[in-house]
Amino acid sequence: MSRLKFPLVVAAFAFSFGSAQAADTYTPGEPVHGDFETFAQGFLDRHCLECHDDISTEGDLNLLDLGPVDETNAAIWKSLWAQVSLQEMPPKKETQPEVIERLQFSDWIVSELQRVMADKGGFNEHLDPNKANFIDHNLLFGPLPEGIELVPTSSPARIWRVTPQEHITRLNELINIEPAYDPEKRGVRTRGDVVPTNHGGELKLYFGTDRITSWAGGTVAYATAVKSIPVVLASNRKHGFENYPDFYSVNSAESTQILDKAENILRYMAYGPLSIVGMPEQITDDPKTYDKVKPPGDLRGLPTAITYNTKIARELTPVYDLMKEDATFTDEQIQAAVDYLFEALTFRPPTKGESDDYVTLVKDSIDKVGKEDGVFMGLSAIFLDRDALFRPELVKEGKADEHGRVMLQDWELGLAVNHALRYIKPDETLKEAITGGKIKTREDVEREVTRMLSDESIRKPRLLRFFRDYFDHDLGGYICKDTGALAKTGAPAGVSHYRAMFDATASTDRLIELILEEDKDVLKELLTTQRVVATERDRIYYGRRYTKEESATALAAKKKEDAALAVESKARLEKVKGELAEINAQLKEKDLDANRKKSLEAKVRRLEGEQKQIARDLKRGRSKVNVTVDEATLTGPAVYARVSRRSFGRDSMPPERTLATAPEGQRLGILTQPSWLVSHSDAMDNHAIHRGIWIRTRLLGGGIPDVPITVDAQLPDEPNTTLRSRMRVTKEEYCWTCHEKMDPLGLPFEMYNHAGLFRTTEFDEPVDASGEIIDSGDPALDGPVTDALDMIQKLSESERVEQVFVRHAFRFWMGRNENLNDAPVLQAAHKAYRDNGGSMKALLTSLLTSDAFLYRKREG
Amino acid sequence: MITRRRSLQSIATGLGAAFGSSMFPDLSRAASLAASGGPKRVIFFMQNQGFDPATCIPAGMTSNSSLAKAKLPEPISALEPFKERLHIINGLHGKHTSPSHSAFFGALGGYRGSDGVAPSASTIDYELSKVLPETLLPHLCIGMDSIENMKAKPTVANLSARGAGSPIFMHSNPNHLYQMLYGGISSGEIRSQHEARSGMLDRIEAMAAAEGKSLPSSDRQRYGEFVQGFEDMNGLRERLGGVSDHLRNFAPKVDDAYANPEFETDWHDRLLDLGVSALKSGITSVLTIGSGRGEIFGAWKGLGVEEQGHNLGHMVQKDNPIWIKIRQYNSRLLVRLMEELESVPEGSGTMMDNTLIVYTSNNADKQHTDGANWPVMLLGNCNGAFKSGRFTQLDGKRPINALYTSILKTAGVDVDRFNMSEQMAAKFDSGSGPLKEILA
């Protein structure tokens, strides 16, 4: 389009848009009518072309020839959508579009991108949780401008794929009995809690570990010999919400593996450890009996290395009943096994048709390959039933209201309520409510939600999952650290660090649960608590990295102590040598009694071991003085954290913790705990940008446009230079437009090193942890901050921050981004939270009884 | 300086990248731009417990040399007739993969791995399977272990991955693998099992499809992927069935060792037979062999090695009779692979002319290693794409990722790095792009 032609088009457009404006109303979700010429071009002319035409091409961007949305200019339109939605454009100094005009323009771009990209992979970015903040916070929580007409909200009818965590927890129910809830040992993993990741951070299903009584070899031999299968469904270990319904499907590779593993599980259901051992003698209450018959040689790492006790530690189900007789079975037994498995895997009883289909399938398989293989092959099909992998919210039954919405009912509603909190099937009370027709109304839902929330014995892993997705504090063990860079932090080296990070995730989880149990000012408490749940090793992670001078002093003290201890050690060494000489002399005596000889030889072995240890001590020094870290004193009551089944030998992943108080003036809430700090770091250093993005999006509700593909997002490689200094490159004019929204929010965390230890110096200079809150949307928040503690304190007192937290809770539990029609739901949830003293239970009850949760809209 | 003006202009030519987006480009697309030549199939042979360079580098050879006049060490002497195809590479590193006790997925991924650590990205074998000429089953993994482990845990996933958190399982029970590949042309019990499984899969595909009919359109595509999964599984059976006459020429004979192995090596041999047959018949283009299945155990009693598991890794490999036996066995398997592939004409030569075999360890050079040296042997020059008949000593400053980048390059994928960010590269890679020392 040439400049010459443009005025004519503008004139035509101005007329038509003028007509549209005359309508003067905007209903969120309603299609915006008009094409490029009759709608969008007018907006560009009024608000964009002044700076972006062929005369004054600001940013080298000429929108004059942009034209209707098509495949080739989609990127520009997407960028326009982001800039306009986030109110980055037009610039603040320019005349701003009316609210309705901006909203319509944004909607129009999205609908056009969807239309144009429909057969090119589609356009779904507006559905991504990272784009949820594109909706203006003030419109959701403030008064709406005249002309915006909301309609009662609902969510779309949909299917929701189970998450990897849900899936493995569901399968675990089939082969393991987890301990019942013990109020005396709160925090210990119990039935209904999620299956935690193992010692290496892998999500695995373990077979029969609670029956293992002995094995050959050490930790790795155990980990190899024990039967386990990794999670099959794809997991997405990235920052942010993982669980929108439209994120995932199940592909052929996953289906194949599910089928394969199903047979493993079914055989274990039928035969227990007998299905995984090499010899039946391995199942014994006295491992010595197995010693007599076990295969000769080195068994380490082999299934034959393990003995299991005879106590049954799985539920004996109809699958067991079906297989306990050799060849005989009845149709009723098959039916019982099918019905049991179907409900265990889909959480609802099968319809008669479903049951009959699977019974036929099992019988056909038996006909072809006999009972043993046929039963397992046929039953394994149920693991791939749609409802075993996807939870439907399709509202096939039910009458639509005047807004076209249908309320979820019966099993769909019951399972939606269950899924909001739980990973295992509905408890008896909820099941009775569903089957008894007592879960049909908003009040019914409120009754069940209130009951479940108030009962600690009903475990609610989805609550914790929300906080993991929200805080992203569970990624530390997956951040690959450079060995040298990690050593400089003062943290333990290598595998010890990664294990400490997985422990730290479990510790922070537990702290969150403790705060949820109190249910008072939950967000503020999470952001400002001084409490920490700690392991022994956390004395280092919550410690303070010494300055150069302090390290030198500590080293001198260590040397002094080592020297003093060396005197003791040398004296002991001489004594040991003397004892050894004496015993060796005795061993040379003639006619030495066999028992006496055996006893003396044992003493020799012990003393030789001690001799070696003393030699090592003399070489390394015995002093335990830490020369790099002023270790924290972490004392307090004993608590427990939730950890994996034994995955790495005896005593792996101990649940014992201490509920302690962090060193004064060094920590403030989750964001200053090592789990969060390391999760937001990289191999070499802190990640101030990620941290800043977290604060901007999760607390302030701000949005950040995508990084243009042409930007070389690398900081300069300048060893021995502070991160703040290297980040100077982001202050280039072009970069700073976005980076001012994140960097000054991330740099206050420079008071910690990248292993999460507190520090006062970096490269022997005082740490600069200053920052600034810029353009937060709440003028009271804006301004400089001295460090992370100052910033967090300010943020924790903000109502806007609280509201943004509510928005995130909405997204997690509704499985979608909020829109303007959800404003009443969000406001009610926030009010419930506030009116009840910052109660998460009140917030959740409000959300789960809202129209957004209860109603679905069918297509068309 | 990158200005807003310049950058906004560049938006016009491409989609904006999401923050934290993949560092790895769309290989499929890149491959479509591939030049002709390079491998048509690639085999990865990963022996556990480390690959001591002293067991493969000819005595006295310390710098880049031709192998023509050298005598190969005893452990790999079986490769002597294939020297002109062999390239021994010493001096790559995998320090970033945490390979002590095995890097697990990190060995083929070029990233940190460890026991119990899920894959953090896809592995090279899987990426190659996407870009090499399409076959019915692009990627096949077989795992060799003790007989007890192969029976009790017939599939494990330790080495290969489709992506973060998506492990690929290795087949270790030859009976199961035979049924999968050749069930349609078999007889007896294997045939019955195959038919029963086929019937079940057909049924659940029909059930899944019926349950998807009433879904909203927004979910149809996603659910369609699930149904497509069954179609893929059933389709593979049908496609294999459709070429059954062809497959009959390649399917191994099922002997008594399938059901009653005396030693684990009986199954190792059968698994290799199945792998070879899958390559020769054109079913697959990438074969990954995990000898020891990526862990620190494994057994070779059939070779007269009574010790097993961890102890083997604690032994010095050089001049060790046990390790000579194991490495000789590996070499014989490699020879078998080459001879079998040489027996099949392809183009103007044989299949082997278009095949690359990568032999290395998931443990770098030894069990307790920091990964400073990661020896590799390449077999096959793929019509001159790779240099061969030589020994190359590198300076220990380029990672195994660079080797994988090189193979990708010959497969038509023009990337500078594989699974390594620029930030990591600044620390762990002295160069960029493929290894010039190995590409012709």
**Largest interface, per-chain counts?**
A-B, 113 and 92 residues
Number of strands of chain A: 19
Shape of chain B: globular
Low-confidence stretches of chain A: 1-23
Question: What Rg of chain A, in angstroms, do the CA atoms define?
Answer: 32 Å
Whole-Å distance between the termini of chain B?
38 Å
Largest sheet of chain A: 3 strands, mixed
Radius of gyration of CA atoms of chain B, rounded to a whole number: 22 Å
Strand content of chain B: 15-25%
What structural class results from the helix and strand content of chain A? mainly alpha
Output mean pLDDT of chain A. Answer: 91
Strand order of the largest sheet of chain A: 1-19-8
Task: Give keywords.
heterodimer; A: 860 residues; mainly alpha; three-stranded mixed beta sheet; three-stranded antiparallel beta sheet; globular; disordered N terminus; B: 440 residues; alpha/beta; Alkaline Phosphatase, subunit A; 2 domains; eight-stranded mixed beta sheet; two-stranded antiparallel sheet; 12 strands
What would you say this structure looks like, in words?
With 860 residues, chain A is mainly alpha-helical. Chain A folds into 4 domains: 6-123, no CATH class; 154-314, no CATH class; 464-545 and 635-796, no CATH class; 548-627. Chain A has 33 helices and 19 strands. By secondary structure, chain B is an alpha/beta fold. Helices cover 37% and strands 16% of the residues of chain B. Chain B is built from 15 helices and 12 strands. In chain B, the strands form 3 sheets. In chain B, strands 2-12-3-11-10-1-7-4 form an 8-stranded mixed beta sheet, sandwiched between helices. In chain B, strands 5-6 form a two-stranded antiparallel sheet. In chain B, strands 8-9 form a two-stranded antiparallel sheet. Classes of the chains: A mainly alpha (860), B alpha/beta (440). At the A-B interface, helix 3, strand 2, helix 7, helix 8 and helix 12 of A face helix 1, helix 5, strand 5, strand 6 and helix 7 of B.
